[in-house]
Amino acid sequence: MELNAQHKPFSIKLWPPSQNTRQTLVERMTNNLTTKSIFTEKYGTLDKDEAEENAKRIEDVAFDTANLFYEKEPDGDGGSAVQLYAKECSKLLLEVLKRGPIKKDSGEDVATSDNSTAHSESIFDISKGQRAFIEADEAQELLKPLKEPGNSFTKICFSNRSFGVGAALVAQTILVSLKDQLKEVDLSDFIAGRPEAEALDVMNIFSAALEGSALKYLNLSDNALGEKGVRAFGALLKSQNCLEELYLMNDGISKEAAKAVSELIPSTEKLKVLHFHNNMTGDEGALAIAEVVKRSHFLEDFRCSSTRIGAEGGVALSDALENCAGMKKLDLRDNMFGVEGGVSLSKALTKHAELREIYLSYLNLEDEGAIAIVNALKDSAPHLEVLEMSGNDITADAVPAIAACIEAKQSLVKLILAENELKDEGATQLSKVLEGHIQLKEIDLSSNQISWEGAQKLALSVVEKAGFKFLNINGNFISNEGIDELMDIFKNSPDRLGPLDDNDPDGKDDDDDETEGSEDELESKMKNLAVDD
């Protein structure tokens, strides 16, 4: 904890803890392991050396866990990281207390089991800071902790550092010695800026080093793999039989590369998470990915957004998804499924009773596709929490079906229908069902050609709702007077109403403009019309 004085405002920094604080915690845990307590009376006390060794390892593991959390989800002062740090220390300390002292034989410690705290999961992460190239000499120094005898690293992250061949060869020796204990490997964005030939050599080296490991998590995202890159990782991919999470995002995966993925991942029996975002897969590639999905019966989280998939690929993926009855999170945003793909997807959704989140924005569903999907969800997915269908040309004609679905989904907390054409009619229909919905926390109906009439009804339906957090109706056609009234409605909870800076008080529906133009033109011609006798 550091205080900044000298006539400046006081600021408190809770994370990271100082070295002195960390050492004090180690000493406290050592004391807990060596003194009399309800646990040591039951399970036995540790001698000082064994207690200190365990206390140091516990603190290291807890610090790594909390620091990773802080890096990914900083909360300003680090308070949440401190809480996690303390929680992890307490949990691991309790495990050691219950395990008791390790028996000794002929003056030597018996090796602890793989599940003991001494070998608890630990993370080795070099992704912090700016992206940088790594050559052999720096790799020797940077990867030194991985060479320490008896280390407990089961998770490694080499992301955001660009490995040359020399650095890869240094890593190869280390990874070969560790691969039996590794469970999670992150090699995302680890060849940036390298010439293609060198990048492929690096990938082949890492693939060979990790071949035969029993990974649960593998991230190869952000590497511009293409088919050559996928095949460079062939030895690693083909050897995996326990993989639960696979990430291949932003990898330049074309239809040929997608076929290679399907070919090189023969075992998907345990796969739960497959993320395939932002690739150039297209319909033919989608057919190959559909084969992977079809074999992944336990898939729970599937992301295939922004992959240029049209109706044919959408139908193939939808058919494959029927085999994934345990699906909990489905993200297919920013593709070109169209009505045909949407209707096909609706059939798969009837099988997804465990679905919690579904993201279907920008799929060109139109009313027919949207209605098919919400009708399917209404009769399945009883625990649905997030429904997103922005940018699908949905009109008020689809709202009765959407409203019926929302009414049936009492666990729904987030509803996103932005950039459609619901207008006042649709907003009014939705407001009636929203008013009686208990769990909804966030609603986005921005850019839906809604005027003050519909906006008022939406506002009144949620403003008094307990636990409600955010209403976004920006980008609509609300008058200036209407905006003033919205502010008044939310005067006691202004944070619940989103910004209105993109609202167009003079906005008109394009169709109305065309109609008015036609009428004006007709009137002009009628004035000049002469009647002959």
TrEMBL record:
Domain WPP: 11-105
Keywords for the protein's UniProt record, in alphabetical order: Cytoplasm, Nucleus
Keyword Cytoplasm annotated: yes
Protein name from the UniProt record: WPP domain-containing protein
GO cellular component terms, A-Z: cytoplasm; nucleus
Chain spans, region Disordered: 494-533
Compartments reported by the entry: Cytoplasm; Nucleus
GO function terms (MF aspect): GTPase activator activity
Organism taxonomic ancestry: Eukaryota, Viridiplantae, Streptophyta, Embryophyta, Tracheophyta
Biased composition (Acidic residues): 501-522
Organism listed in the record: Lupinus luteus
